[in-house]
Amino acid sequence: MKIIDITGPIHENMWNFGFPHGQFKIMQLDFEFLGHRYFHEGFIGLVGTTGTYIETGAAYHGYKKDIPTHKISLKRLVNIDAFVIKIDLSKLSERNNRKYIRLEDIIAAEKEIIPNGKSIIISTGHSSKNWDSDNYINKSPYFSKNALFYLLDKNLNLLTSDFPTWDNKLNPENTLERLYSSGTVILANCINLEKIKKYKVKLTAVPIKILNAGMCPARAFIIEED
Model pTM? Predict the structure, then answer.
């Protein structure tokens, strides 16, 4: 059995989506208790989209129309079957100076038919190459409409990738409404996906149990069976 940590590291001065007060910092809160010094930290600027995170349609529709992250059943998140679609970042087509994933790229990378209701991992290597780069977000690949809709047509349990923006801000594909209405759990900004060797793996991704959050930082890992 091989375990691959696909959680991106959180640290000061890392990339962020530009939300006010969303720049992660650590504050030392050391204290003394019963004659001993304890080391303790406060996390400033830890927002729902810090690092690797889980997202539901509640982020788009609100909590009356969709579930927050703490209400996702653990059966949907722990040791689930996932299929790995590997696409070479350097070979992607470009539009508006941004690389994008076409339907043809996904179909060419499918080694066998992926059943409905499963989970899919899209691996390009973007996170591992650019996690600490100023261009991590601005140079992120995105999905063409027919590519993302092809995946969503499979009634996915969960979809994840190693790039942070799934649509093109300069020339939107207008895919996000369907994504957020699909019921698919979104696991964003994974890393080390290119280290996965097998096509079918077990995935675990669990958000921090913060009540009533549409997006929440998570820990995620892959298990490859021998």
Answer: 0.95
Radius of gyration of the chain (CA): 18
Give CA angle at 131 (30, 150), nearest 5°.
125
Smallest CA-to-CA distance from 225 within 202, 191, 195 is with: 202
- What is the C-alpha separation between 15 and 136, in angstroms, rounded? 7
For residue 54, with 0-12 CB atoms within 10 Å meaning exposed, 13-18 middle and 19 or more buried, which class applies? buried
- In tens, the pLDDT along 76-103 reads 999 999 999 999 999 999 998 899 999 9
**The two three-digit tokens of residue 17, written as one number:** 């989506």
Question: Helix or strand or coil: residue 70?
Answer: helix
Q: Which residue has 């992607």 as its token pair? A: 92
Taking the C-alpha atoms of residue 148 and residue 197, their distance in angstroms, rounded to an integer, is 23
String of b and e for 172-199 (b: at least 16 CB within 10 Å)? ebebeeebbebebbbbbbbbbbbebeeb
